Amino acid sequence: MVTTAVRTFRQEPHAPVSLRFTLSGRALALALATLFALVLPLAARQPGAAAAAAPRSTAATLKRAGQLIEWGRWKEARTLVEAQLAKSPKSARLLAYDAHIQIAFGNTHLALREAHRAVKLDPTCARCHLYLSEAMGQKAKHESKFFALIEVHKIKRQLQLASRYGPDIGDVHWGWINFYLDVPPVAGGNIKDAYAQAQALGQIDPVDGLIAQATIDLAVGRPGAALAAYRQAATRYPNDPRGIFDVGVTLFHQSHFARAERYLRRARDLQPQSTLYAGYYAAALIHLRQHRKARRVLATSQPLHPNSRLADYLTAKALKSIGQDFAWARSLVAAYLAAPPEPDQPTHHQARALLASLG
Q1: Is 346 exposed, middle or buried (0-12, 13-18, 19+ CB in 10 A)?
Q2: String of DSSP letters for 5-23
Q3: 157 Cβ partners below 8 Å, 6+ apart?
Q4: Contact status, residue 7 vs residue 70, Cβ threshold 8 Å
Q5: Is the CB of residue 238 less than 8 Å from the CB of residue 244?
Q6: Which residue of 107, 258, 266, 359 could cross-link 102, Cys pair, CB 3.0 to 4.6 Å?
Q7: Does 24 have pLDDT greater than 50?
């Protein structure tokens, strides 16, 4: 089942999965005082799955796209969904999911049109209402406060419809969590209700429920509690890479590289398809001065996702941090610049700044 938030690149310590919405992940620094950052954790987080041939059905396409997004490979997911949508232009589920992807690429107006069309095609499609609420939330970020307040009620209505038609869909609970965190209390924000949604999510997906709990902990300034929740997920479910990765990346950003390495290695081993897992693992190895091993990690992982180069950027940044092998770092940044960046990952402007700092 496709449930939960997207994993994204994390630049700051303790930054949780981005709910660009959001996601595992999903990069999230939720601001409770910010009314209009209504982005919903709606994309899939799948425990590992092997590479597969191009799917032929809508269900298989959506499952594969969700996996790709969880692994930090948005561009591949967009290509896959758009190809299937060309074959089935009246598929409400495909239209809604493409809207979700288009939001990540900044195409809000297209996303709104697709999501509205999806709801009209299938008024009982829970994810159609969910992704429409996401698109409306993204639009609200650019409205005046008056119009955004009006939009909040429309967003909430779409979430209510998503709950009516899909009460057991994990993404719906993520949508409510983000709503309760982002919206001020006067407009319906409520931390207690956010935790209640995380608990309900835990009944559907225990790992994701713990990750949601940690996301809320981070949002209210409790990083220690968040790390404890991640550790619970990693300990109770040692074959699910999501919680394991969250522990590792949190320790990484705390500069506990030796402790982070074993978690990041385990996550990468469980899911080698993820550019996120491989990237942070390679960067941790650089901080531990294990350059040869880091090179092997990159040599193994990059052929699996040649157009997603986050591992190159993270490794180059680590080399800059320890002041070693700038020539290799420059070649890695050049490789990163050779491909368009994924959403929620370093921009080319950031990469060029890193390259300039390498001399």
Answers
A1: buried
A2: PPP----STT---------
A3: none
A4: yes
A5: yes
A6: 107
A7: no
